[in-house]
Amino acid sequence: MNFCSDNTTGVSPEILDALTQANTGTAMPYGEDELTAKVQKRFNEIFECETTVFLTSTGTSANALALDALTPSYGSIYCHKDSHINCDECGAPEMFCGGAKLITLPGPHGKLHPGELETALAATNDAVHHTQPAALSISQASEAGTIYGPAEIHHLSAVAKEYGLYFHMDGARFTNALCTVECSPAELTWKAGIDVLSFGATKNGAMNAEAIIFFNQKLAREVGYMRKRTGHLHSKMRFIAAQWDAFLTNDLWLNNARHANAMAQKLKCGLETIAGAELYFPVEANELFISLPENTLQALEDAGYGFYRWHDAGSPLIRLVTSFNTTEQDINGFIQTALEAS
Amino acid sequence: MNFCSDNTTGVSPEILDALTQANTGTAMPYGEDELTAKVQKRFNEIFECETTVFLTSTGTSANALALDALTPSYGSIYCHKDSHINCDECGAPEMFCGGAKLITLPGPHGKLHPGELETALAATNDAVHHTQPAALSISQASEAGTIYGPAEIHHLSAVAKEYGLYFHMDGARFTNALCTVECSPAELTWKAGIDVLSFGATKNGAMNAEAIIFFNQKLAREVGYMRKRTGHLHSKMRFIAAQWDAFLTNDLWLNNARHANAMAQKLKCGLETIAGAELYFPVEANELFISLPENTLQALEDAGYGFYRWHDAGSPLIRLVTSFNTTEQDINGFIQTALEAS
Amino acid sequence: MNFCSDNTTGVSPEILDALTQANTGTAMPYGEDELTAKVQKRFNEIFECETTVFLTSTGTSANALALDALTPSYGSIYCHKDSHINCDECGAPEMFCGGAKLITLPGPHGKLHPGELETALAATNDAVHHTQPAALSISQASEAGTIYGPAEIHHLSAVAKEYGLYFHMDGARFTNALCTVECSPAELTWKAGIDVLSFGATKNGAMNAEAIIFFNQKLAREVGYMRKRTGHLHSKMRFIAAQWDAFLTNDLWLNNARHANAMAQKLKCGLETIAGAELYFPVEANELFISLPENTLQALEDAGYGFYRWHDAGSPLIRLVTSFNTTEQDINGFIQTALEAS
Amino acid sequence: MNFCSDNTTGVSPEILDALTQANTGTAMPYGEDELTAKVQKRFNEIFECETTVFLTSTGTSANALALDALTPSYGSIYCHKDSHINCDECGAPEMFCGGAKLITLPGPHGKLHPGELETALAATNDAVHHTQPAALSISQASEAGTIYGPAEIHHLSAVAKEYGLYFHMDGARFTNALCTVECSPAELTWKAGIDVLSFGATKNGAMNAEAIIFFNQKLAREVGYMRKRTGHLHSKMRFIAAQWDAFLTNDLWLNNARHANAMAQKLKCGLETIAGAELYFPVEANELFISLPENTLQALEDAGYGFYRWHDAGSPLIRLVTSFNTTEQDINGFIQTALEAS
């Protein structure tokens, strides 16, 4: 069993079924099809407002296109130092934004703190010598597997708005966060001040399906051109729309995320009893960061379990990610192996 | 029936089956999976040489990443004035190449002529005031639905090499061309001087699956970073690889293209007998450009047939594109309707 | 004597004097000095309106910064196929605009024709597949040494405005044009529809001094950041401002240009009498394009006269450029040598 | 008297003389003139090696063009968090490098420490998810007015070379550093591992004159095109070359810097005796960072002395910069005013 990431799994059967059902007749390409229109409406329902939506197939493109819409080339994007956009996208935001600058901030548990942000922004001015604050970006769930509640987002938003920044949420694991917080999608996004959300389905059971949701619709004006120009407008779009349609039907998205989250909690409960085990971050979504004794880790690796040492080969700290199809047996087996070695 | 484009159809059943079969167990993400490795080898077999391959999901990204590998930001890309990279990608090559320049050339039947290219290149020099010739790009089949034979490609290549240009082929309909020419894939590409091929499967029965094939492997050195940086590295890559695997198995790619080509010939034979019909380009792949009497066009539109007036609303010239699943009945029905109105 | 270009000469004595006079005391850097403020006001007087001005030291930067202010990265800039921005700036507009596209149009005597522009624009639409028309750029005087009158500019502007394009004038030789047309600077620019002018002093007697004049001031909002970000904000700005101050004082700019123009007319009158001489373009500013017998050209080259064969080494067509300090003797000597060889 | 920066002063009389002397006869433009060739040779003499030199007129362009030559768009540039390239160039390196990333490191006294660099680089790998370490850049003198000795540079170079990074020096105040270290220019640059130097003359008595010196000449191959493409190739280049020629003649560069450095030392000696005065950094070039009592600062401001509160309006920490033409009287007056208020 592979706990390396939630993208090592396949897809939900409902997703495959949806692809099969979408494969009938002709449909206009490039998003001019009926399924894409249907999905746009569905997003409006789910978020309880008018949105402008762009479907794409990778999280990096969703983030970079969203950030480009918020940021001029001479702009700065404020983000956590460990954020995906800073560490794991090979400079995609910089490329899409024409060479903008990411200003990285520290913060406990992978999360930005309003005070830290305020301090950073208060030190800026509008002189031409400096890149200009343009956007704030947070990850929900964060790279540490932690969650921002609506109040936390609202506080960050208040600082962002005070300094004229737009607010982006990287929601590669948005549904996992939503299921933990137990508020409405609207409350976790635009009602708390989010202008644009990169909404991920891939890590939660879809094939390669992401969406950029603009709550602040005026910011979306140029995105259609930029999506095409960056090669992210798919000709057979109906097959991405079909995934979103299935994903947002019968609570598939919520059920998948709830299951992954529950498996992470189960894993946490099993592992934290091991002598020497130490959790690095609160377990709030579908990721655990835990350090375990070396012989335990060896035993798990020898048993064929996949996971990453964090961040380097010999580290006792590991990351474990659960997914929509992680089974209780997978968890039990992992815990059993760990306990026996400890 | 929709003759607007070969991307208005769905996908081959074999492609869907392959997705289902790929949906078992875990697989490392981002192309580190076994299917991607298998497909890389399959490309080597098909092209009878070592290649470096990058899978992606759109033709525009395949073209732009390929061209970026050939072209510095101060470089020029020589292409046909009607080429997809010039007209239909919203400036993606310019964006990916950091602001390179496309030098467009005319040419009958949508094809570049070596003499025209030579004249253009002979007028250049290496002074710093001018962008520098870096790449030649042709479309195979061309935007006019015509084909370059190996000798034609070789002649263009000779000019390109004389002036130090690399040679790119936009093969969104490469298989359609290959089936017409009836030579080996190697003869139509690297043996004729092609350095890199954008090989399309999407228009020929796949879902959203393209491949960049570097025959000149040293040019591929930085592409992995650029693919990630432009958001085109898919996390669940196995589902793109699976499509290619099925596509290149049991001649699916060739059978699909042969069928589409045959349907285009059938359509041509049926329509050219109409009084006033005029073919604009030779029909060599799966596209017809034909002008028909206005009442014939009206009748076809009234009957619900989809096609584009070329290039503007009232034009008598239309484009008809056949695909892997166009049926003989579709063709017969279209011809019948046209004949009855004439 | 060198007729290669008007940038092979030195500078007017008044320019050197101004540099010396500016070299007293301290001045705030980066354009926060008094001379820069004075020059801004002077531009407002000369153009009879409020302008926003950015000084720079090269014509290429003036053009590229101006065009960037008008053009999104997915935009197109319409220009003459022989224009400096297309042929002689190594892709600077493409670089500054983030990979925008130059759409080149033909036109007699180096000038764009409204009908040609209208035809090109009428063929565009707002589909995301295509770069979007954003700016029109003309050179005044043109690369052929010809002039647009106010009515011609107005006609072009009418087409541009109809399609939503902004209008840029590359005025590297603006003063030469102005002296020929004999209208006011306002009539030749904003009153005829120009949004932004690259106003050159370098070719007309200054050292390295150019100015970007925004008549449409809302377009200037981001230029300060872009000027810095592209490295074109000079720290000791007073020494560029001082040149402009002297240039615009006591009609130095007008006198310099009038003289250069007069010398070009004198040269034309002397050379056109030679058997076999053929003028290629009307002589309207300070440039002649003329073909002369090869033995005449040889004699001139042997006598040490500098000029360019246009465009290639053996061509009978040459370009002759006069400047603010070309003397009557220079002209007489050139003509004499030519006549003797003919 | 203005101590805000060394770019609030004018220029050395020798520089003005050189401009006047260069203003005779014609000269080929764009650096094809004799003075530019002469200066290239002079740089070779001064640095005791073959170099490739590009003259420009701003420090930002010199830095950004140099860094672009070292860094692919997916590359990272390692630099001090307070460096000019990170804080004061509005993202020019990011723009010129096509969206590269600056990785900022802390370090006492404005200087990078090899250990800090090694730690940062050791945490990198060549996975496509991350921008790739490409260049190291230091400022000499640093933004804190401190100096790297040859041994320090060599240690940094050793780390850089181990990880395959090229090494850039921002030498806006290179001569000030050189005069403090008292080694040869070669020892302070290429012999210590520097690949390319941005060599500034502007802050040390020139008008707007900078030079990019490539010791690693193979890296210079594309710079000519990039200089043109970014608008930094001056047509009347002889007037930049003339400044360099004068600057490097009769030790003008060294004498100017030595004087500025000496004035800084004098200022330091006078101010550090004030009760409550605190030096923030060692005074090693021509800058002091010192905190003084508020009433002292008020008295100095009331007396009309110009200087910056560092970094914000009410700060007791100020920056004082001396220059080639700061006089002993200026220093004595400043100290006197400060002492009287304390």
Automatic annotation (TrEMBL), chains A, B, C, D:
Pfam families: Beta_elim_lyase (PF01212). The keyword Lyase applies. Keywords: Lyase, Pyridoxal phosphate. It is an enzyme of class 4 (lyase). The keyword Lyase applies. One of its GO terms (biological process) is L-threonine catabolic process. It catalyses: L-threonine = acetaldehyde + glycine; L-allo-threonine = acetaldehyde + glycine. Its EC number is 4.1.2.48. SUPFAM superfamilies: PLP-dependent transferases. Its cofactor is pyridoxal 5'-phosphate. Residues 3-288 form the Aromatic amino acid beta-eliminating lyase/threonine aldolase domain. GO terms for molecular function: L-allo-threonine aldolase activity. Homotetramer. PANTHER family: L-THREONINE ALDOLASE-RELATED, LOW SPECIFICITY L-THREONINE ALDOLASE. Belongs to the threonine aldolase family. Catalyzes the cleavage of L-allo-threonine and L-threonine to glycine and acetaldehyde. This is L-threonine aldolase. It comes from Candidatus Terasakiella magnetica.
